[in-house]
Amino acid sequence: MLLEVRDVTTAYQGLVAISNISLDVAEGEIVAVAGANGAGKSTLLKTIAGSERARSGTVRFDGSQIEGEPGHRITAAGIAYVPENRRLFPRLAVRDNLRLGSYLFRGKADREEPLERVFGLFPRLKERLPQRAETLSGGEQQMLAIARALMTRPRLLMLDEPSQGIAPKLVDEIFDAVVSIRQSGTTVLIVEQRLSECLAISDRGYVLQTGRIVIQGSAQEILDHTDVRKAYLGV
């Protein structure tokens, strides 16, 4: 397994947000995490990324224990995290946002090479290079956030609600890009509100409820689960 989370409990603002969570992500997979608002999905990703500290449990990446490490070391180890709020530098140009991703973690020779990959995924970013990030549409900002994460050449990309706040016509582009990212060799762990669309591109999934995993299995098994269909698909 590329990522192994074992019995992790994390508190957020003094309250337990996830409790005894265990999950695996194998290299080359797309794994989805679903759940209602407040179920602990974002806290799970933040704990893996190092921006929240687990009270207990272990997180291993490629065989090495990473829980408790600062976020920049976890990123340098090969995990890129795109948070729900994207955290772009709004007054900087698209070009500068992209380059910041590579300058933080890579040598000079590697700074330009990942650009061709992200332009292949998101051609419109190449057209927007001189524009400030704050002038982009919501969908374009999400593309930029994903592209900047890919500039670190991660082995694992974690996405928190990538379709949120995006015009419907661009949602398909985001999901198509996730599939292409996996095909190019990057593993993906994704939290997403559009459950059916997300599971359609995923290998496996987990469903959280009040900070605990209540359902896990293949993407099809989760789609076919009666409780999931009632709670998330309305059927």
The CATH homologous superfamily is called: P-loop containing nucleotide triphosphate hydrolases
How would you write the strand order of the largest sheet? 6-7-8-3-9-10
Number of helices, counting only DSSP H or I runs of 4 residues or more: 10
The average pLDDT is 91
How many extended strands?
10
Order of helices and strands: EEEHEEHEHHHHEHEHEEHH
Rg result: 17 Å
Overall CATH architecture: 3-Layer(aba) Sandwich
| Large-scale geometry | globular
Share in β-strands: 25-35%
Largest sheet: 6 strands, mixed
Report the helical percentage: 25-40%
For the record, give the distance between the C-alpha atoms at the N and C termini, rounded to a whole number.
34 Å
**How many individual domains?**
1
Describe what this molecule looks like in 3D.
The protein has a single domain, classed as P-loop containing nucleotide triphosphate hydrolases (Rossmann fold, 3-Layer(aba) Sandwich), CATH 3.40.50. Helix content is 39%, strand content 26%. The protein contains 10 helices and 10 strands. Strand 1 and strand 2 form a beta hairpin. It starts with a strand and ends with a helix.
List keywords for this structure.
single chain, 235 residues, alpha/beta, Rossmann fold, six-stranded mixed β-sheet, four-stranded antiparallel β-sheet, globular
Describe the secondary-structure layout:
Elements: E1 3-12, E2 15-25, E3 30-35, H1 41-49, E4 56-61, E5 64-65, H2 71-77, E6 79-82, H3 94-105, H4 113-121, H5 123-127, H6 138-150, E7 156-160, H7 168-183, E8 187-191, H8 195-201, E9 204-209, E10 212-218, H9 219-224, H10 226-233
Parallel strand pairs: 3-8, 3-9, 6-7, 7-8
Antiparallel strand pairs: 1-2, 1-4, 4-5, 9-10
Helix pairs in contact: 3-6
